[in-house]
Amino acid sequence: MPPFHGDKMRNYGELICDITKQAASNLTVGKKFIARQMMQEITMQVILQAVFGLYDSPRLSQIKSMLVDWLELTASPLRASLLFFPWLQKDWGAWSPWGQYQRLLQKLDELLYTEINEHRAQLDPNRMLIFPLKKIQKFTKCKRENLTKTLFQHQQ
């Protein structure tokens, strides 16, 4: 069944509601909270679960941590400019922003490909994925652009 078919969309809606309820359950009545942080957490969980299908992976916390670190690398307009201006994309070692970005993406790639291979070995027809992991791997050439777009939408 296509990923955006009616029944699957209802399931995604339920998943998003469940993730939202879980996030809201951590709030204390009468205590102030920063809505943006909560929304980012909800969005991150939706990306991890609905897009990548990561519910109970042993690498889930590591992947989430790397995605958060990656978002921090691109959080300011100045640092995000690295993605758009090729002349800034110079790897001058571990201390250069572009070098950090590249090493982080390489580690993230390794973790995601490990997940893809594991999912291929033990297919679960009940697992909800907007983009099945086997299809994600086919888009290797565009994966970083798509990951960038997905995660930038997360920040807004």
Q: How is this structure best described in words?
A:
- The protein is an all-alpha fold and 156 residues long.
- It is 63% helix and 0% strand.
- It is built from seven helices and no strands.
- Helix 1 (6-25) crosses helix 2, helix 2 runs antiparallel to helix 7 and helix 3 (60-73) packs antiparallel against helix 5.
- The longest helix has 25 residues, at 97-121.
- The two termini are 31 Å apart.
- The relative contact order is 0.13.
Which stretches are low in confidence, meaning pLDDT under 50 for 5 or more residues running?
none
Order of helices and strands: HHHHHHH
Q: How many strands, which pairing sense, and closed or not: the largest β-sheet?
A: none
- Count the DSSP helices: 7
Helix content: 55-70%
What is the count of β-strands?
0
Return the structural class.
mainly alpha
What features would you highlight for this structure?
156 residues; mainly alpha
Provide a short characterization of the protein structure.
63% of the residues lie in helices and 0% in strands. The protein has 156 residues and is an all-alpha fold.
